[in-house]
Amino acid sequence: MWNRNTDTFLSCVSDFDGAGIVLFGAPFDGTTSYRPGARFGPAAIRRESYGLESYSPHLDRDLSETSVFDGGDLELPFGSPERALAEIEARTELILSRGKLPFLLGGEHLVTLGAFRAAHKKYPDISIIHFDAHADLREEYLGERLSHATVMRRCHELAGDGRIFQFGIRSGEQGEFIWSAGRTELHRHNFNGLDASVRALAGRPVYLTVDLDVLDPSVFPGTGTPEPGGVSFEELRLAAAAVCSNCRVVACDVTELSPPWDHSGISVAAAVKIVREMLLSLATFNEEE
């Protein structure tokens, strides 16, 4: 029996057996290359969620009306990325085996690889929709193949060409952009082309990964690698809702909130609201299917 976390996200008080969506955290930032602190993201999102209403005026729906289980955070070894990924993969695999949708809170972006490994096992034809400031397509970073800068390259090794759809990308080595041609569908700077990708993926399993540094640092300074020129909060909210409301999302994550770098709290507030809107959109889509 997996007990509900003591401090839950908003109104996510369903038990595991009755839940359609399972929320869990991966507080890991062992490969962060610039500003550490993303390990504190999941706990901060839960803690600060009490400052936000469970009702969404955008969707006219209340989170208390949904069945979401909050299982708390994994206890991960900070010194071993591979062991941390194995723990995340195992937990995601358990959730999927029970017919539920895993919703992962990071942590640095490398945590996506653990969850995607499990999702790919169950859905070999799965595609990824990736929101981020960074391409994350390096073969290695400082000699390491497992890094927040290489996570989409590692996911590509599983998914293959034509399965990764990237949006908001405005940073990376020139070689990453060259390598992506014909391998990923990379959209620079914004969400132009997202509607076409959503239509193309209709009915197919999708993994949605949201690196919150896709937001402009003026909106979201609390992240490990801030990159000027990002999207607005409303643009991200609408994009995430479009995917969660129209795609067959079978697993997802929100990553790269680093609370120590924003003492104002606006970054945590933005993360909390994005998670709420995604949960409500996912719940509505799954109930209508």
- Structural Rg: 17 Å
Shape: globular
What proportion of the residues is helical, as a percent range? 25-40%
Distance N terminus to C terminus?
28 Å
Give keywords.
289 residues; alpha/beta; Arginase, Chain A; globular
Task: Describe the SSE topology.
Blueprint: E1 21-26, H1 41-48, E2 55-56, E3 61-62, E4 68-73, H2 81-97, E5 101-106, H3 111-122, E6 127-131, H4 151-159, E7 164-169, H5 174-180, E8 185-188, H6 194-200, E9 205-211, H7 233-246, E10 248-255, H8 266-288
Parallel strand pairs: 1-4, 1-5, 5-10, 6-7, 6-9, 7-8, 9-10
Antiparallel strand pairs: 2-3
Helix pairs in contact: 1-8, 2-3, 3-4, 6-7, 7-8
Folded structure, characterized:
The chain is an alpha/beta fold. Helix content is 34%, strand content 18%. An 8-stranded parallel β-sheet has the order 4-1-5-10-9-6-7-8, sandwiched between helices. A two-stranded antiparallel ribbon has the order 2-3. The protein has one domain (21-288): Arginase, Chain A (3-Layer(aba) Sandwich). The chain has helices spanning 41-48, 81-97, 111-122, 151-159, 174-180, 194-200, 233-246, 266-288, and strands spanning 21-26, 55-56, 61-62, 68-73, 101-106, 127-131, 164-169, 185-188, 205-211, 248-255. It is globular. The longest helix is centred in the C-terminal third of the chain and has 23 residues, at 266-288. It contains 8 helices and 10 strands.
